[in-house]
């Protein structure tokens, strides 16, 4: 999955959680925490891979051996400051990133590429990229098509929810 799609998925997952558990649309800072959590694996792994520190672009940040403890630590810190929702939102975003990297490998039969889930215990080969899903009317359908649909749906949901987080970003940045 492309990095920007993970941000949208993190938001969608957090929005579903808030509607299910609280009966309301997401609020600003927690929505941003979910997006930051969803960005973390790529913000960690991609630069380290580009710098030659990691052998692949899915390693530390994409491993459940990293994501679960980090989620717990962030939640504990947030809870100790009476900001439980920020910790929950961050964990939802981070774990949504790891989980949503799995389906494309399952659909394409590239099970060996799931090594990132328990890296460094398991080996992670180089990611082979966009996966073909089939052909419709002579046109090859790939995972990028589905990612495009997810982005449109997620941005539409965010807009409908009142663009939570935008005001908070504007309050911090001079835009």
From TrEMBL:
<dbReference type="InterPro" id="IPR007404">
    <property type="entry name" value="YdjM-like"/>
</dbReference>
<keyword id="KW-1133">Transmembrane helix</keyword>
<keyword id="KW-0378">Hydrolase</keyword>
<dbReference type="GO" id="GO:0016787">
    <property type="term" value="F:hydrolase activity"/>
</dbReference>
<dbReference type="Pfam" id="PF04307">
    <property type="entry name" value="YdjM"/>
</dbReference>
<protein>
    <submittedName>
        <fullName>Metal-dependent hydrolase</fullName>
    </submittedName>
</protein>
<feature type="transmembrane region" description="Helical">
    <location>
        <begin position="85"/>
        <end position="107"/>
    </location>
</feature>
<feature type="transmembrane region" description="Helical">
    <location>
        <begin position="142"/>
        <end position="160"/>
    </location>
</feature>
<keyword id="KW-0812">Transmembrane</keyword>
<keyword id="KW-0472">Membrane</keyword>
<feature type="transmembrane region" description="Helical">
    <location>
        <begin position="59"/>
        <end position="78"/>
    </location>
</feature>
